[in-house]
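[Discussion] Sanity-checking designs against the backbone

I'm trying to build intuition for which residues belong where. Below is a C-alpha cell string of 210 positions. I'd appreciate it if someone posts a full sequence so I can compare it with mine line by line.
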C-alpha cells in the first residue's frame, strides 16, 4: 500500500463491513502468514469492475491462496462466468484449491505453473485480466494476456506503483524492478493513450481497456 494513503485507506476500509466468514478467515490467515493479498479497498474496486463489466471470462495472474480469485469468481458467477488463475508456488496453489472448494465454487480453473509459460498455452479469449504476480515480469504478463483479451476487455494491474518506490527513495536491491515498472507505465501511456489510466490508490493500479 502507498504509505501516503494509509489514513485515507483506513477510513475507506472502516466503512466496509465484510460478512463472508471464509473471506474474513482468509484475511486473517494472510495477515498472520505474510501472504500478500489485495488490500481491502482494492478488493472492493476489483469486484466493482468485474460487476460493471459483467465479466464472464476472467484470467488472474498470481493466485496466492485464492482470495482475490474467490471475489472475482463469485462476482462473475452471477453472469455465468468463470475464472482461470495461475500460481507458481505449489503450497499456495494447494491452499487456493482448498479455499475455492470451501467457497463452493465450480467455475474456477486453477493452474499450477509459471505464468510466463502458462498464459501462452491458453487458447481462449478473456474479457477481464487481473495481473498480480512478480512485478519484474509485468510487461511480459501484459503482452501475453493482451493477445487473449477481447475487444472492450479490461486489464487490471495491481501494485504498479510498488510501495511508492517509483517516485521516492527505494532500497538499491529494487533498482531493476523500479526501472522496469516505470518504463512499463511510460510505455502504457504512449501506446494506449486515453485507453490507459493510472490510479494512485492501494499500491497503485493500472487500468486498460482494449
Ligand atoms: C500478490 S500475490 C497474489 C495475491 C492474490 N491475487 C490475491 O490478492 O489474493 C502474488 C502471487 O503471484 C505468484 N507468482 C509470482 N510469480 C509468478 C509467476 N511467474 N507465475 C505465476 N505466479 C506467480 C506468487 O507466488 C504469489 O503467490
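Best answer:
Here's mine. Compare freely.
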Amino acid at each position: 500500500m502507498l504509505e501516503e494513503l494509509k489514513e485515507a485507506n483506513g477510513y475507506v476500509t472502516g466503512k466496509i463491513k465484510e460478512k463472508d466468514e471464509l473471506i474474513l478467515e482468509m484475511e486473517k490467515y494472510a495477515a498472520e502468514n505474510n501472504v500478500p493479498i489485495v488490500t481491502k479497498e482494492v478488493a472492493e474496486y476489483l469486484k466493482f469492475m468485474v460487476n460493471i463489466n459483467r465479466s464472464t471470462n476472467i484470467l488472474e495472474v498470481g493466485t496466492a491462496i485464492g482470495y482475490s480469485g474467490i471475489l472475482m469468481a463469485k462476482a462473475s458467477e452471477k453472469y455465468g462466468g468463470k475464472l482461470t488463475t495461475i500460481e507458481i508456488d505449489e503450497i499456495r496453489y494447494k491452499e487456493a484449491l482448498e479455499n475455492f472448494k470451501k467457497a463452493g465454487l465450480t467455475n474456477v480453473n486453477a493452474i499450477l505453473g509459471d505464468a510466463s509459460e502458462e498464459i501462452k498455452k491458453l487458447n481462449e479469449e478473456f474479457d477481464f485480466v487481473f495481473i498480480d504476480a512478480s512485478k519484474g515480469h509485468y510487461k511480459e504478463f501484459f503482452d501475453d494476456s493482451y493477445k487473449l483479451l477481447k475487444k472492450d476487455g479490461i486489464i487490471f494491474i495491481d501494485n504498479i506503483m510498488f510501495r511508492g518506490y517509483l517516485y521516492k527513495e527505494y532500497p538499491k536491491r529494487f533498482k531493476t524492478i523500479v526501472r522496469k515498472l516505470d518504463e512499463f507505465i511510460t510505455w502504457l501511456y504512449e501506446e494506449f493513450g486515453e485507453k490507459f489510466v493510472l490510479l494512485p490508490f492501494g499500491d497503485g493500479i493500472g487500468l486498460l481497456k482494449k
